[in-house]
Amino acid sequence: MLVAAVVFIAVAPVGNEAQARTTPPTTTVPVAAQTPPAAALTVAGARQIVVSVNQLATRSPMSLAAAIDSIVQSSGGSVGIALIELGGSTPITWSYNGDAIFTAASTYKLVAMMMEAQNIASGAVDAYGLVCYSDADFEPGWFDDYSDGACYTRTELAQRAGLYSDNTAGHMLVRDVGGADALNAWAAAAGATGSVFATDNTTTASDLATLWAAEAKGSLGGQTAQAWLYPMLVGTATEAGIPAGVGGSTAVAHKTGQIDQVVNDAALVISGPRGAFVLTVMTDGIGGTGAWQLIASVSSEVWTFEAARA
């Protein structure tokens, strides 16, 4: 069995969250400082105002949008991005074409794993209960040891689907949670209302980010679900996307998806420079190394933006 060590987080629901979306460009930014009455304005207070204004300028989603737009325009492809900050006094939610519909590719496996994690956390199923293979599950992928009647634990299938993005394991997980209809009903109830996973297999950056935020905040099974889920999404076989753009040895739980010219990455950055955040990047029309480099560049810009958080 594969084992990975990772720090788990459960972020309390945020009551004061600012929203910003790009395309069309609208921005709501928390006001970092207001000018105090003149009588109360001391030298120290004036310095603090300067610092706060500088932080606000650095933290402007419009600055982030400009940097991201430059990356996207030079790529020649279609890109959707969503960022959700977790924790802190004034977290923001920001998106760039966040509601645009993309092919989900293997990111549907993340959703199946989240649903499985919640079922395990609730006691509805056993993490080491068996799921048996049938011929209808097969799709060429990382593993080739499937045979009629062979059985695998839910944990083993999730490791295969998460760490290696194995296709047959993904199909078996979807079947185990009740099939595509059950999976999509669960995802919609959790906030992913613009997605049709596993059948049409389409989604949006905002939907995947919403699911990741719900998971991180404990709404989809809490710490028990996280403890089962996260190790299967850290240190995967494909780390060229969002993990390549973050600083140092930061833990990133993520699921990629790649098919033809579609390359996606949906991540929870567990230890950001000023706290955890969710970042999802969907791409189409670029493909291969160019797409992975774009995702890493977006991740790097977001990391710099996050480093400016107060």
Task: Describe the structure using short key phrases.
two-stranded antiparallel sheet, alpha+beta, 39% helix, Beta-lactamase, 310 residues
CATH superfamily membership, which one? Answer: DD-peptidase/beta-lactamase superfamily
Global shape: globular
Annotation, overall tally of beta strands: 11
What is the CATH fold-level name?
Beta-lactamase
Order the strands across the largest sheet as they lie in space.
2-1-4-3-11-10-9
Question: Which architecture per CATH?
Answer: 3-Layer(aba) Sandwich
Instruction: Pick out the low-confidence regions.
Output: 1-18, 23-57
- Compute the separation of the termini in Å: 41 Å
Order of helices and strands: EEHHEEEHEEHHHEHHHEEEH
Task: Supply the number of helical segments.
Answer: 10
User: What is the number of domains?
Assistant: 1
How would you state the average pLDDT, rounded? 85
| Major sheet characteristics | 7 strands, mixed
